[in-house]
Amino acid sequence: MLTYLIRRLNLLVLTTLVLMGLLYLALLNMPGSTATNLSGVTNPSDTVAQRISDRYQLESHPVQGYLAFVTARLSGDLGLSQASGQPVSEELARVMPATFELLGLALVWALLFGIPLGVLAASRRGPMPKLLWAGTLLGFSLPVFWLGILGMLTLGLGLDWLPPSGRLNLLYDVPTVTGLLLIDIPLSGEPWRWAALDDAIRHLLLPSLVLAVLPCTMVIRTIRAAMLAEMDKNYIRALKARGLRRGQLVVRHALPNSLAPMIRTLTLQLGQIVASAIIVESIFTWPGIGSWLLSSLSQGDYTALTGGILALSLVVIITTVALEVVQSLLNPVMRKEIYG
């Protein structure tokens, strides 16, 4: 297992260096001053410009400049936002919790609905499995922006069941502790905290459900395929011959062995899910990193844009490696390959 972890860490480091190399090349070729794009300092004085040049080795070989860029970014210096003048790291700390909250609830919906529906789709009885399979094909094919607009027009504006945009009613001023409203509101101790919590949940429901459609279809399809394979294995037939009921076979034996392929599928599609989250945030005016990145792009704030891409990409890469490790722990066959 140690050898496998070392290999994963090597892949993490290599991927990060390649990503930072691409971002560095992009900053060198973007419009405007290279010193401003790297540091975020607009109209620097001669002294400040020389300091920026020394920090990022602008007058040295490009390899030295790249190493200086990597050193600065890995030390936590993401530069200043050209639009607001604030450190990019502080702005990321402000917007990232909203994205984590949205993604987290969407994955909860995907697992909550996807696992039982995947087990049901693996059944060979009745028309329901075929209907579920057709539904997954439809859900996987529909663009997330179309689903978001449709949900906003029907549930938000047409039926007025859920708020069509935003994260919280402006009437509530919640003190920031973790940045996650579902945690900060109860911790506030305010007399209106339960009304604010209800409002926050209502704002979160529609975008999280729209975002959950894609991972939910992935979970259903993966669980179905894994369950069909497991139910045809010899150990299941032996347990069935011993008199175990189908429910016990599914819940205690087949389903646990089907979770590892599901984790692998979500791992491989994590980047696509995060990309969908950026689109959902822009549709529902959700104040997360997706809306912040699009705003930085429209304003030509290249320092903030590349800093946000770097931070978001590192989260995806680290989460992917962590999920691969979890899968190796759940899948005995994969562990055998690793140790072999």
Automatic annotation (TrEMBL):
<dbReference type="Pfam" id="PF00528">
    <property type="entry name" value="BPD_transp_1"/>
</dbReference>
<dbReference type="InterPro" id="IPR000515">
    <property type="entry name" value="MetI-like"/>
</dbReference>
<feature type="transmembrane region" description="Helical">
    <location>
        <begin position="266"/>
        <end position="284"/>
    </location>
</feature>
<feature type="transmembrane region" description="Helical">
    <location>
        <begin position="304"/>
        <end position="326"/>
    </location>
</feature>
<dbReference type="InterPro" id="IPR035906">
    <property type="entry name" value="MetI-like_sf"/>
</dbReference>
<protein>
    <submittedName>
        <fullName>Cationic peptide transport system permease protein</fullName>
    </submittedName>
</protein>
<keyword id="KW-0812">Transmembrane</keyword>
<feature type="transmembrane region" description="Helical">
    <location>
        <begin position="204"/>
        <end position="223"/>
    </location>
</feature>
<dbReference type="GO" id="GO:0071916">
    <property type="term" value="F:dipeptide transmembrane transporter activity"/>
</dbReference>
<dbReference type="GO" id="GO:0005886">
    <property type="term" value="C:plasma membrane"/>
</dbReference>
<feature type="transmembrane region" description="Helical">
    <location>
        <begin position="131"/>
        <end position="159"/>
    </location>
</feature>
<comment type="similarity">
    <text>Belongs to the binding-protein-dependent transport system permease family. OppBC subfamily.</text>
</comment>
<keyword id="KW-0472">Membrane</keyword>
<feature type="transmembrane region" description="Helical">
    <location>
        <begin position="102"/>
        <end position="122"/>
    </location>
</feature>
<feature type="domain" description="ABC transmembrane type-1">
    <location>
        <begin position="96"/>
        <end position="327"/>
    </location>
</feature>
<keyword id="KW-1003">Cell membrane</keyword>
<keyword id="KW-0813">Transport</keyword>
<keyword id="KW-1133">Transmembrane helix</keyword>
<feature type="transmembrane region" description="Helical">
    <location>
        <begin position="9"/>
        <end position="27"/>
    </location>
</feature>
